[in-house]
Specification:
By secondary structure, this protein is mainly alpha-helical. It has twelve helices and four strands; from the N terminus they run ααααααααααβββαβα. It has two domains: about 1-200, no CATH class; about 210-300, Rhodanese-like domain (Oxidized Rhodanese, domain 1), CATH 3.40.250. It has helices at about 1-25, 30-40, 50-75, 75-85, 90-105, 120-125, 130-155, 160-170, 175-200, 210-215, 270-280, 295-300, and strands at about 220-225, 240, 260-265, 290. A four-stranded parallel β-sheet has the order 2-1-3-4, covered by helices on one side. The radius of gyration is 23 Å and the shape is elongated. The model has no long low-confidence stretch (mean pLDDT about 75).
């Protein structure tokens, strides 16, 4: 374990930069503990607060700018890709969209304190047309608040952190094993949380081909678009009504218990559609099914899309 301490002392800035960069790119490698440890090492002989802070800010802005341009180029599709590589529950897309749409670019000031929100908020900034200069300023300020708080905590509790590091060093390989086990436990807990969430929302889906067959045959199932308002601008399935979790209580339609109700969204595993479907089932609508693949699968299949044009 002693060589780990030496690595931190010799290559601390590189470790901070790489760790922050990888976490902001979406990998499940928490950087906050690294920043706290780095904060405990602040001294004239080792690291200065401004240099550490600037290193973390630059790494975060580089990663976030990548997702910003990905969101600008690929739009809402990049959000699904982000949630697929994230260990946070798939609801992160819907929750992040709601938070970002409510506060706009100022949400970038706090996004790094919310697990799973940092990368998604950057992609949302790009997909919703936030100006690059505004994004860079807000993102840099948010990174400064996030990294600065960790460095400050590290310097505040430097004595306790030094004692902990000394204990791990004295434990040798067992100390290294303990650190690895803690990281593994963190990743495993996030994975289990995601799987449990998906299990709760498991239900039968309807394919885009099946839905298209219903419409072609002249049947008129109730179709509900559950996406956030700004996502609807890209187009919707013909005949769809628009609903979100916030407007669910305002929804009124006539349907008996056996009439088909189809819901779709643009999130991984049809999470938003499945959540609203569960809510409708508690109200007595039992023939409710999310659309497998959502609006993206419908569009990719080449089926008709309505829009404002």
């Amino acid at each position: 374990m002693s060589y780990i301490a030496e690595l931190i002392q010799q290559f601390g800035l590189i470790i901070v930069f790489v760790n922050v960069l990888l976490e902001q790119l979406g990998l499940p490698i928490p950087a906050y503990p690294t920043l706290v440890i780095a904060g405990a090492l602040i001294s004239p002989e080792q690291f200065s607060f401004p240099v550490l802070l600037l290193t973390a800010i630059v790494a975060a802005v580089i990663a976030d700018t990548f997702w910003y341009f990905a969101g600008r180029k690929y739009g809402n599709r990049v959000l699904s890709k982000l949630c697929k590589i994230s260990l946070s529950p798939d609801a992160c897309v819907a929750q992040s969209q709601s938070l970002f749409l409510k506060f706009g670019s100022p949400a970038l000031l706090i996004c790094k304190f919310v697990p799973g929100f940092a990368s998604i908020s950057s992609a949302l900034a790009g997909s919703t047309g936030t100006k690059l200069i505004v994004f860079l300023i807000m993102d840099a300020l948010g990174a400064a608040l996030w990294a600065g708080s960790a460095l400050w905590l590290g310097s505040l509790f430097s004595n306790a952190i030094d004692e902990l590091m000394n204990i791990l060093i004295e434990m040798g390989k067992w100390g290294m094993l303990l650190v690895l086990l803690a990281l593994f436990a963190f990743i495993a807990s996030k994975w289990w949380e995601r799987q449990r969430f998906l299990k709760d929302l498991r239900m039968a889906r309807i394919s885009v081909d099946e839905l298209n067959t219903l419409l072609t045959n002249g049947e008129t199932p109730i179709i509900l678009d559950t996406r956030a308002p700004h996502l609807v601008e890209d187009g919707w399935i013909p005949g769809a009504q628009f609903i979100t979790m916030d407007t669910l209580d305002e929804l009124t339609f006539k349907a008996d218990n056996n009439e088909a109700v189809i819901l779709y969204c643009s999130c991984p595993n049809e999470v938003t559609a499945a959540k609203i479907a569960k809510a409708l089932m508690t109200r007595g609508y039992y023939n409710v099914r999310p659309l497998a693949g959502g609006i993206d699968a419908w569009r990719d299949a080449g089926y008709n899309i309505e829009n404002l044009k």
